Amino acid sequence: MNLHEQLGALEMGVDQLIQAVVATQAENHPESSASNAAPQASAEPVAHATHAQADGQADVQPDTQADTAAADSAVAESAVVEPEAAQPQERQEQQEPAAPSQEAPAEHLQPTLEINRPAQNEITMTIGGQTVALRPDQVGKLIEELSNARASMTPEPPPGIPPGWRFVSTKNPVMAVQKQSNGDRLLVMRHTGHGWVPFTFSPDMVIQLYMMLTQSK
To answer: pLDDT > 70: what percent of the chain?
Structure first.
């Protein structure tokens, strides 16, 4: 192939290349125009929808205000009713502490007294969980105080000897006699448990005591 033929073939190739480029651009332009038109088309329904929504809101606003007013009135009624409903509960809560508790009777129970003898010359007394140990002289003082207090209490000891009575007798006790100004006799006898026990006898009772001690059956 000579030079002229090569130039001709080259020009033909350039023409074909230009045509191909133009055809490609022509194919791309319709798509771009269609794509540009699509947003506009889609934007229009959005605008219509926006206007329609705005219109709908304008139409709904009066109903919403009415509902809001009704809700406010309902809240106001509930605010008025709730305290009335809460009053019985508050009264019940106030009355509950006034009710007696189950532990109250236990608090009013009297403490128990327990007497033990751990040793011959010692006695322990337990009252309300507190234990006290007493020596013989302290026991005698306690007996004396209790005897003086019991003499002024009622009811008095039974007039007769109670059945099953336990006692400790003192044989041949030490005695002391004193004559009173009115003729009575004061007889004091020493008991090993009770200590010195005083008795007052009128003249008639002295005679009866003498007869009881001297008579024989």
So the answer is: 53
Q: What is the 3-state secondary structure (H, E, C) of the chain?
A: CCHHHHHHHHHHHHHHHHHHHHHHHHHHHHHHHHHHHHHHHHHHHHHHHHHHHHHHHHHHHHHHHHHHHHHHHHHHHHHHHHHHHHHHHHHHHHHCCCCCCCCHHHHHCCCCEEEEEEECCEEEEEECCEEEEECHHHHHHHHHHHHHHHCCCCCCCCCCCCCCCCCCCCCCCCEEEEECCCCCEEEEEEECCCEEEEEEECHHHHHHHHHHHHCCC
Dump pLDDT digits (tens) for 129-185: 899 999 999 999 999 999 999 999 999 999 999 999 999 999 999 999 999 999 999
Q: Report d(CA 207, CA 215) in Å as an integer.
A: 12
pTM for the full model? 0.47
How confident is the model over 33-52, as pLDDT tens digits?
444 444 444 444 444 444 44
Structure tokens at 89: 């509960």
- Phi, psi of 53, rounded to the nearest 5 degrees: -65, -40
Q: Do 133 and 124 contact (CB within 8 A), yes or no?
A: yes
Rounded Cα distance between 173 and 192, Å, is 8
Is residue 188 a contact partner of residue 196, using CB atoms and an 8 Å limit?
A: yes
